[in-house]
Design a protein that fits this description.
The complex is a heterodimer of chains A (77) and B (410). With 77 residues, chain A is α+β, with helices and mostly antiparallel strands. Chain A contains two helices and five strands. Chain A has a three-stranded antiparallel sheet with strand order 1-4-5, with helices on one face. Chain A has a two-stranded antiparallel ribbon with strand order 2-3. The termini of chain B are far apart. The chains are: A alpha+beta (77), B alpha+beta (410). Chains A and B meet through loops of A and helix 7 of B.
């Protein structure tokens, strides 16, 4: 029933604030530069992933539906 | 230049022009032990970012760890007041390390996200318009006192959801708390009065919002008390933090940014050609070029190797965003003010877990202000030969910014 999501972190924006790691620890982890990487886009619920994206202080996280490519965050407009 | 010269962080020429001084230091010794002030001064971009992203190695609990007296020195009879300052600041969110920091930031983080802040844009735009409508017919103003100072207080008062008529009193409190950053030997008196004032002012509001919570900032903090994350004192001093952190920094962004635009008429003309389209990147460049906060402190939580030097546990560290933002290894032609600069990964909001909580609000205030000024004024002239800065190593604060303009120009 759960749809697959694609989750992207824009490293030109990510400042390693790490709130996404606290919100969706199954999805995000820090790399050697202490920037977020997506380790498993299915590692947490859609709700938690969207919460992490919404709460990113630099708007570095993009979330799409894998099958349709529809963007869930940031919302268009 | 001798070693002693390199260590005088408060020399008048360093306060006037920190960029030349810190550039020299960055080239000579990017991880520098300052013998005179007994602290490390970190000026390289790469070193600053690394430090900020390794929060477990560098504590933010300055007040808890540091025993250094206030500097510049204060009247000896006022020294006991410094304990009050320590207690106030030590309980603020910015002075916490993990795990407490994560829990406390978690309470307020959502309130300040870019998406959440966007809903404030109409209010901010309107506040800017109201102030400028009053000022425009005058033909002159001290930007600092009549525009850059009242604007953030209006916005913060609204976020605290306090009565309209309390705005002037909040402004008074905010002005007192600005003494945190001054050099006057008597400054602890107005500062502690302001701190006591905000605690007394906020106390009944917290009681009220615990009973009937709204969606304002004090209610959010009060909710943190209900869930056991904050003590009452922490709720009160963090209300003060919001007032203070959003005040001086925004004033400096507006004044330093506008001064850079006035001094670079070609860049002002670029902005004027498309204020709505160019305000976003222009604000980032203002933040990079002459940041509101020049430097911040940390304390080494353990022995750390950085840039080939060994920083010992307990050592004080000052990292200089005003230097990192001009590092040629991160920014091509770093001393050039270019309102279209992109990418612009400045560290004026810090980096890592302590990255500025109010970033989205600050950016929006800058964008709305620079856009409105460019839309309204064909040309602003500096009405003074020289500008002066407060003698602070932390803040890049002008003492005033008098400007004039001709009305009716097209």
């Amino acid at each position: 029933m759960t749809r697959r999501l694609d989750v992207f972190v824009d490293h030109s924006r990510c400042v390693g604030n790490a709130m996404c790691l606290a919100t969706a620890p199954g999805v995000f982890a820090h790399n050697a530069d202490r920037q977020s990487e997506v380790v498993d886009p299915a590692g947490d619920t859609e709700e938690k992933i969207l919460e992490a994206a919404f709460n990113c202080p630099t708007g570095a996280i993009r979330v799409e539906v894998d099958e349709t490519g529809k963007r869930l965050f940031p919302r268009a407009g | 230049m001798t070693r002693t010269d390199l260590d005088d962080l408060f020399a008048p020429e360093v306060i006037a022009d920190p960029y030349s001084y810190f550039a020299q230091l960055r080239e000579a010794d990017p991880v520098h032990w300052n013998e005179r002030f007994q602290l490390w001064v970190i000026t390289g971009y790469e070193e600053v970012v690394w430090l900020l992203r390794h929060h477990e190695l560098f504590s933010s609990a300055i007040m808890k760890h540091s025993t250094s007296p206030p500097y510049p020195p204060v009247d000896p009879e006022d020294l006991p007041l410094f304990d009050e300052v320590r207690e106030f600041r030590g309980d603020q969110l910015v002075e916490q390390d993990r795990p407490e920091h994560l829990h406390q930031r978690g309470v307020v983080h959502e309130y300040f996200t870019p998406t959440a802040m966007e809903s404030w844009r109409p209010f901010v735009r309107n506040a800017v318009r109201e102030l400028l409508d009053e000022l425009e017919p005058l033909g002159r103003m001290d930007v600092l006192t009549v525009f850059a100072a009242p604007l953030p207080v209006r916005i913060i008062a609204q976020m605290m959801d306090v009565p309209f008529e309390d705005r002037d009193y909040l402004r008074e409190l905010a002005d007192s708390i600005l003494y945190m950053n001054r050099g006057e030997p008597w400054r602890l008196r107005p500062l502690t009065e302001g701190m006591r004032g905000i605690v007394e002012y906020a106390a009944p509001l917290v009681e009220e919002r615990l009973e009937c919570p709204g969606d304002d900032f004090i209610s959010i903090l009060a909710r943190g008390e209900k869930t056991g994350v904050f003590t009452r004192h922490q709720v009160l001093v963090n209300t003060g933090l919001l007032l203070f952190a959003g005040h001086e920094t925004t004033m400096n962004l507006i004044c330093n940014g506008l001064l850079a635009l006035i001094r670079h008429p070609d860049q002002w003309d670029r902005l004027r050609a498309d204020p709505a389209g160019k305000a976003r990147l222009a604000t980032e460049e203002c933040l990079r070029y002459d940041p509101p906060v020049k430097s911040t402190q940390r304390i080494a939580a353990e022995d750390v190797e950085l840039g080939g030097r060994t920083i010992r546990k307990g050592d004080r560290i000052r990292w200089i965003m005003a230097a990192a933002n001009r590092d040629p290894s991160a920014f091509p032609d770093p001393d050039r003010f270019d309102i279209g600069r992109q990418p612009n990964p400045h560290v004026s909001f810090g980096s890592g877990i302590h990255y500025c909580l109010g970033v989205a609000l600050a950016r929006m205030e800058g964008q709305e202000v620079f856009r409105a000024l460019a839309e309204r004024f064909p040309r602003l002239e500096l009405a003074t030969e020289e500008v002066e800065y407060q003698p602070s190593i932390q803040f890049r604060s002008l003492k005033s910014l008098p400007v004039t303009w001709t009305q009716g120009d097209q």
